[in-house]
């Protein structure tokens, strides 16, 4: 009895442990990175133009030490200020996307749409999770869609809350769905396409193996989100956000009133915005700036169609920014951390040191080592194309030396670049900002899933050693 009581009290103490504030976590990471700039010497590889991929890549064996800029006390604060300026495009994307969604909710359009969805699905509203995550996953795995769906995070967050879940469920439908698909790439030209072309293997080869990887990882992600959603719907206190003040989106109201003509027009405009987003990113080479401008435009047009005057549109937009400023500021903070590393020029040095660890290891150990190294590198080098251009010219020859197929090296890059985007704060802070949640709450939700994904990554990497010979 005494042992059971002791275990129960220990469980209670563990459950009552509170994660530090988001800015405390980021400050600790910043200080660690600053410390690393005084430990890791500055270095870089020589970049050359790769005719196969038409991109600049590093020349294997060209690493050399250079002079870097280590920040002093004032330099740390200056890097943070520069981070906010450098991340301005992302910050305004979040602001304008939320402004648009807030306008849809404020004029009753999104509530009317959700009520219609509930009536149509009945008791099967949970289907929005597997259907939505599968759709986003396919887009990420085949077309390389990722940043293009950022604006939909607050939309699905609002829908999820209205269906009895929490903000994280809605955000996970979009973010976990598309990130899992992007990492488990099949025809993604921005990850597997570039990596295979640099590694010198046929582009999009090994498609059946990659398709199996996609199915397994996407299924695991969907099942986890569905389990979490079902758990908190039965008991809201199980939500990682329980007790957390999240007032970014206005409260949803369940009404049986028919949709007005204005609301129908706003819904058609919303569908048109989705089509414009897809066409612009795939055919017009839209980036963050164009997407943000589109959301700003749609917010104003939606306000006009909803019957708002100019003054009310302005006031509604200002109101939409009040609850999410702290989340927006996190993005600039993490960009400041990246700038510290860039100024110190330690990213290439980290790649060089880590690649040296693989020499003399067995095939299985080397392949798993590649995976872990790519995960670490993704903290220092964000962006799939950038990471491929820097690491693949190094990892491909290393794979040859240790007797591992270059396909395995490509797979390690895909996994390390993609899945850790859902965990490293330098990558996932933006999505937390879009959801309006502290990054500590995201870790509480994401850690079990990410741990399972690590196990699956290791398993598939080992299998690839024997599949690709």
Structure description:
By secondary structure, the chain is an all-alpha fold. Helix content is 71%, strand content 3%. It has 20 helices and four strands. The chain has helices spanning 2-15, 22-39, 73-86, 88-106, 109-121, 128-143, 153-162, 167-183, 189-199, 207-234, 261-283, 288-305, 310-322, 325-344, 347-356, 363-380, 384-402, 406-418, 425-435, 439-467; strands spanning 43-44, 47-50, 55-58, 64-65. The strands form two sheets. The chain has a two-stranded antiparallel ribbon with strand order 1-4. Strands 2-3 form a two-stranded antiparallel ribbon. α6 packs parallel to α8, α15 (347-356) packs parallel to α17 (384-402) and α17 (384-402) runs antiparallel to α18. The N and C termini lie far apart (57 Å).
């Amino acid at each position: 009895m005494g042992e059971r009581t002791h275990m129960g009290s220990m469980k209670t103490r563990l459950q009552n442990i509170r994660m530090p504030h988001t800015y405390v976590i980021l400050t600790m990471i910043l200080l660690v990175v600053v410390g690393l700039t005084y430990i890791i010497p500055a270095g870089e590889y020589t970049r050359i133009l790769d005719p196969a991929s038409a991109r600049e890549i590093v020349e294997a064996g060209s690493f050399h030490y250079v002079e870097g800029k280590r920040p002093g006390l004032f330099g740390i604060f200056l890097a943070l200020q520069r981070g906010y300026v450098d991340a301005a495009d992302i910050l305004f994307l979040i602001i304008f996307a939320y402004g648009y969604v807030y306008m849809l909710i404020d004029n009753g359009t999104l509530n009317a749409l959700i009520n219609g969805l509930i009536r149509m699905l009945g008791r099967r509203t949970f289907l929005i999770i597997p259907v939505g995550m599968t759709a986003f996953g396919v887009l990420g795995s085949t077309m390389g869609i990722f940043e293009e769906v950022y604006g939909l995070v607050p939309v699905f967050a609002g829908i999820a809350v209205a269906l009895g879940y929490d903000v994280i469920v809605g955000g996970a439908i979009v973010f976990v769905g598309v990130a899992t698909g992007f990492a488990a790439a099949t025809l993604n030209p921005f990850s597997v396409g570039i990596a295979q072309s640099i590694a010198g293997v046929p582009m999009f080869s090994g498609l059946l193996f990659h398709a199996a990887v996609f199915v397994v990882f996407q299924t695991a992600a969907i099942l986890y989100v569905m389990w979490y959603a079902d758990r908190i719907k039965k008991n809201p206190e199980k939500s990682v956000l329980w007790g957390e003040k999240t007032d970014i989106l206005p409260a949803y109201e369940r009404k049986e009133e028919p949709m007005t003509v204005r609301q129908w027009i706003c819904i058609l405009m919303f569908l048109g915005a989705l089509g414009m987003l897809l066409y612009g990113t795939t055919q017009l080479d839209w980036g963050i700036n164009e997407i943000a401008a589109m959301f700003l435009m749609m917010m104003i047009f939606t306000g006009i169609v909803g019957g708002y005057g100019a003054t009310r549109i302005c006031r509604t937009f200002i109101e939409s920014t009040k609850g999410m400023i702290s989340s927006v500021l996190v993005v600039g903070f993490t960009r400041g951390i990246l700038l510290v590393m860039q100024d110190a020029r330690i990213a290439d040095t980290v790649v060089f040191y880590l690649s040296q660890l693989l020499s003399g290891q067995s095939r299985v150990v080397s392949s798993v080592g590649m995976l872990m190294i790519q995960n670490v590198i993704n903290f220092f080098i964000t962006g799939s194309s950038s990471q491929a251009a820097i690491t693949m010219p190094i990892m491909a020859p290393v794979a040859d030396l240790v007797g591992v197929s270059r396909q395995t090296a490509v797979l390690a890059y895909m996994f390390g670049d993609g899945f850790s985007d859902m965990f490293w704060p330098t990558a996932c802070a933006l999505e937390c900002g879009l959801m309006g949640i502290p990054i500590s709450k995201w870790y509480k939700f994401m850690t079990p899933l990410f741990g399972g994904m690590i196990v699956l990554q290791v398993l598939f990497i080992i299998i690839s050693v024997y599949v690709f010979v």
